[in-house]
Design brief:
Elements: H1 2-32, E1 35-41, H2 47-58, E2 64-70, H3 75-81, E3 86-91, H4 100-107, E4 117-121, E5 138-144, H5 151-154, H6 156-161, E6 164-168, H7 180-190, E7 195-198, H8 207-213
Parallel strand pairs: 1-4, 1-5, 2-3, 2-4, 5-6, 6-7
Helix pairs in contact: 1-4
């Protein structure tokens, strides 16, 4: 029993320490006038594809930097870097989410005086990122129709603590038996203050609405 309580105490200490670093990051980005977004979602939800489309529309308007998190690869970072924006890869090893500690180290490698907008693409996961705030202005959670009709109900915590929810791959609504409007309703039942946008990274449907919701 004592060991279990020791483990819980260590986890709580880590979360508190992470929150302190996240506050430092928030203050730093605010001081630099940088708008920042933490993008979370499962592998295959379309986070990188959406980010690519957003970058193409905004890169002439803003100086953009992107930090991508992955357990081992730099596949997403390579995709993003082809769009001509500053890109930095964080490999987390056995960690299933980015933490403020990871992000602080990464920010030290970027000239923040040359950045207007920062996107942080978190490790592909709908559970672990809920434990760690990063200090970004807004958290965006991305899910897709291909994850099934109950993906939102099964992961309520991320929707409770996010600012924007994106329901992606709506171009498949007539192919698979998943109703995006029902998913939207599920999200708002969990968090009535959540801003929900329906998108298709493939056809770019809803992309303007998403950018407007992000206030960019």
């Amino acid at each position: 029993m004592e060991d279990r309580f020791s483990i819980v105490s260590v986890e709580e200490d880590l979360i508190r320490a992470n929150e302190n670093v996240a506050e430092e990051i928030s203050s730093l980005l605010t001081e630099k006038g940088i708008r920042s977004f933490d993008i979370v979602g499962a592998i295959g939800a379309g986070k990188t594809s959406l980010l690519e489309r957003i970058i193409e529309r905004l890169k002439k308007k803003y100086r953009i930097a992107v930090i991508t998190g992955d357990v081992t690869t730099r596949i997403d970072a390579d995709r993003i870097s082809r769009h001509g924006v500053k890109t930095l890869q964080i490999n987390t090893g056995r960690e299933c989410a980015l933490t403020a500690f990871f992000l602080k180290e990464a920010l030290g490698k970027i000239d923040l005086n040359d950045v207007d907008v920062l996107f942080v693409e978190n490790v592909g996961n709908l559970i672990c990122p809920a434990d760690y705030v990063l200090g970004c202005d807004k958290r965006i959670v991305v899910v897709s129709l291909t994850e099934g009709p109950y993906v939102i109900k099964k992961h309520p915590l991320l929707f409770k603590i996010s600012d924007i929810a994106v329901i992606n791959k709506i171009d498949l609504r007539n192919i698979i038996e998943v109703n995006p409007e029902k998913m939207l309703k599920d999200a708002l039942e969990i968090n009535p203050d959540l801003k929900v946008v329906l998108t298709s990274a493939k056809t770019e449907e809803g992309l303007d609405d998403l950018i407007s919701t992000m206030e960019l």
